[in-house]
Amino acid sequence: QLDATIVTGQVNVYGPLGYRVTVDGRDMGPMPVTVQVAQGVRQFKLVSDADGSGCALPKEIAFRSPGRPETVTLACP
Predict the structure, then answer these.
(1) Can you tell me the distance from the alpha carbon of 23 to that of 61, in angstroms, rounded to the nearest whole number?
(2) Which pTM value belongs to this model?
(3) How many Cα atoms are found within 13 Å in the side-chain-facing hemisphere of 42?
(4) In terms of CB atoms within 10 Å, which of 30, 35, 43, 54 comes out highest?
(5) CA triple 29-47-73, angle to 5 deg
(6) Taking the C-alpha atoms of 47, 48, 54 and 56 in order, what is their torsion angle to the nearest 10 degrees?
(7) Beta partners for residue 11, in sequence order
């Protein structure tokens, strides 16, 4: 029998100021930001406010402590 429970939680996202963050194609706002996501591999994208440049960064999200946010730090290579 499969467990169909989807675990979600908050993730505090940090990185360079002057960038906006999207997660799985949804604009989440300027850095730093707290987002609500399901655990698993999420597609983060940084987009510069100055010139629109940026990068995509897949990150594995796993909630280790129920009710406590996880932290992700992003930077374009």
Answers:
(1) 12
(2) 0.87
(3) 23
(4) 35
(5) 75
(6) -30
(7) 35, 70
Residue-wise pLDDT tens digits, 9-54: 999 999 999 999 999 999 999 999 999 999 999 999 999 999 999 9
CB within 8 Å of 23: residues ≥ 6 apart: 35, 37, 42, 43, 44, 45
- Report how far residue 18's alpha carbon sits from residue 51's, in angstroms, rounded to the nearest whole number: 10
Residue 48 identity = S
**Which pair of structure tokens corresponds to residue 37?**
């996501």
Q: What are phi and psi of 46, to 5 degrees?
A: -105, 135
Q: What span, in angstroms and rounded, lies between the C-alpha atoms of 57 and 46?
A: 8
C-alpha to C-alpha distance for 38 and 9, rounded to whole angstroms: 7
Q: What residue type is assigned to position 12 of the chain?
A: N
For residue 44, give both structure tokens.
């983060």
